[in-house]
Amino acid sequence: MMKLGINTVLYKGFGIKTALKAIKLAGYDGAELSAIQGMCEHLVLDAWETQAPLVKAAAKEAGVELLSMEVASLDEDRLTKAFKAAAYLGIPVVNVGPGGKKDDEESFNAQIEVLKARSELAAKYGVKLCCKAHVGCAVYSTPTTLRAMELIQSESFAIDMDPSHIHRAGEKPEEALASVVKRMGHVHIRDCKGPGPNPGAPAEQACGRGEINLYGYFKALVDAGYDGPVCLEVIGPEQTLTQAQSIAAESYGYMNAVLKLLGAR
After folding, report:
1. 168, 169, 174, 196 — which has fewest CB within 10 A?
2. How many Cβ atoms sit within 10 Å of the Cβ of residue 232?
3. Nearest by Cα to 231 from 121, 147, 143, 132
């Protein structure tokens, strides 16, 4: 069964205990722990050894599973700390972006080498490094994702398939998924208004409010037998607790209903 989670970045104005309790109340199975420097650090990696036990206790108290962690950065020192923290917390997946520049062959090749090295590092800690296609980066579309999959054969490397970035690359995510699903280890989910470059205001990223065929995307996931985490990731300005909870609950209701209709929950 696919597990539905939510990135704690949506609750970046609040502490981890408040965020995890809110996530549980919204119906989610688990959470993606945000450790994104400069955006939201519900786990400060430079102090992970003292903070991780507090995060573990908060998750146990809230009754939610820690499904993944988002670091975004490819910095070796930060990822080493992230992998150590993930291993301690029992988090199987650490998510990053690809970095680099769009349609720049030299940049693409350089980022592939970095991702290879970071995947090897992840393997040392029994963690999987997941990377998604990202608007404006070296890997930004399905064709560039397929190139990365071909060049990085490590079992500790997988794809985080975010339909909002594929949508903004001018593709149909529900059709693109089939070609990458065999290497997928995580899904970042949100809806999207317009062609980008941004996905829209936070409320417009709630599942069902935008232009992505999310029903078709979930059907493709179910048909392919994907059983990894699916985590809502809503970015943008800090939200009040009421606003954040509205987005979280609305999205959970949409996703849960669709998956029930598809016989997957």
Report:
1. 196
2. 29
3. 132
What digits encode the pLDDT tens for the residues 44-74?
999 999 999 999 999 999 999 999 999 999 9
Pull the structure tokens for residue 45.
């990696």
Four-CA torsion 144, 150, 152, 157, nearest 10 degrees: 80
Rounded to two decimals, the pTM is 0.97
**What dihedral do alpha carbons 27, 32, 33, 38 form, nearest 10°?**
-110
Both tokens of residue 160?
């985080």
Q: How far apart are the first and last CA of the chain?
A: 7
- The pLDDT of residue 227 is 95
Three-class SS state of 118:
helix
Can you spell out the DSSP letters for 74-123? Answer: --HHHHHHHHHHHHHHT--EEEE---S-TT-HHHHHHHHHHHHHHHHHHH
Would you state the pLDDT for residue 103? 98
Cα–Cα distance for residue pair 87/125, rounded to 1 Å: 6
Per-residue pLDDT tens for 209-237?
Answer: 999 999 999 999 999 999 999 999 999 99
In 48-183, at which residue ranges do the beta strands (DSSP E only) sit?
A: 65-72, 93-96, 128-131, 157-160
Closest CA to 172 of 129, 131, 219, 137: 219
Could you say which architecture CATH assigns to the domain 3-261? Alpha-Beta Barrel (3.20)
